[in-house]
Specification:
rod-shaped, mainly alpha, 75% helix
Length: 104
């Protein structure tokens, strides 16, 4: 992308006109808004990914706890279907990927 001086290199006298000055200020304001938006989008994705990882970690911890309880008390706890757990986890990741446009 060209900067303002590059755009007016052939006619530097135009930089002094009020209309061009106003256009330059407006352009700089828009550039600032675009930069702020990119930072916000980046933060939102980072926050969402942290939340996703937290959910996954919690699910894995619950699985481990239930597995230990099932081994200790087989009559009181059903055996955990790990295949179903992995399928659910994959579905969750794919859904979040599509919903948040992560590009995984």
């Amino acid at each position: 992308m060209k900067n303002i001086k590059q755009l007016f290199c052939g006619r530097p006298d135009l930089l002094e006109t009020p209309e061009v000055q106003e256009l330059i200020e407006y352009t700089q304001e828009l550039e600032g808004q675009v930069l702020e938006r990119k930072v916000e989008d980046s933060y939102d994705k980072e926050h969402m990914l942290k939340s996703m990882l937290s959910d996954i970690l919690l699910s894995c911890q619950e699985y481990e706890e239930n597995k230990l309880l099932q081994e200790r008390y087989p009559d009181q706890y059903e055996k955990i279907d790990s295949d179903n757990l992995v399928k659910s986890l994959m579905g969750y990741i794919q859904e979040m990927n599509k919903k948040n446009n992560l590009g995984l």
